[in-house]
């Protein structure tokens, strides 16, 4: 029965909230100019009071349940415990450790790929390479003029 009454109150509250938003906003061809609004204020106060009463009744309805609370645990102080003294240890003399030298590891040989040395200077292939690469190449001296104006020897890598 209590559950039914709670559901009924919640249903009425929800319906009242919903229906107030569905009312048309119309002045009915009358311009009140903010006069005689005492009815609206009175209805607002009545609605607020009704909401407070219903809300208080709903909030108070859950406080009638019985709740079991565990009793506080009883504290028993621990019994004193006797620990015998630790045995006296005599130093044990051991022989000095023997350290063996670490094994010597030689690094693995490094294998490098064979890089061609390019063209040998003064060979016909070297002449062809340098004359194609540098427009300022001078075959008689084997030099070219760089962008900085310095003469450099042509090295074909």
UniProtKB/TrEMBL annotation:
One of its GO terms (molecular function) is carbohydrate binding. GO terms for cellular component: membrane. Its main location: membrane. It comes from the Bacteria. The chain crosses the membrane at residues 40-59. It is found in: Membrane. Keywords: Cell membrane, Lectin, Membrane, Transmembrane, Transmembrane helix. It is a single-pass membrane protein. Belongs to the BA14k family. Has immunoglobulin-binding and hemagglutination properties, and can bind to mannose. Essential for virulence. May be involved in LPS biosynthesis or polysaccharide transport. This is Lectin-like protein BA14k. It comes from Georhizobium profundi.
């Amino acid at each position: 029965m209590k559950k039914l009454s709670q559901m009924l109150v919640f249903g009425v509250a929800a319906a009242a909230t919903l229906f107030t938003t569905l009312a048309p906003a119309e002045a009915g061809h009358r311009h009140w100019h903010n006069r005689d609004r005492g009815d609206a204020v009175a209805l607002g106060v009545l609605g607020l009071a009704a909401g407070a009463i219903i809300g208080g009744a709903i909030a108070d309805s859950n406080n009638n349940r019985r709740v079991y609370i565990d009793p506080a645990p009883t504290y028993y102080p621990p019994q004193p415990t006797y620990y015998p003294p630790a045995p006296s240890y005599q130093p044990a003399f051991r022989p000095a450790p023997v350290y063996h030298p670490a094994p010597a590891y030689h690094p693995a040989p490094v294998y490098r790929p064979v890089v061609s040395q390019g063209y040998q200077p003064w060979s016909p292939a070297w002449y062809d390479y340098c004359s194609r690469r540098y427009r300022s190449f001078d075959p008689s001296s084997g030099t070219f003029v760089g962008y900085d104006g310095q003469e450099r020897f042509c090295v074909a890598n």
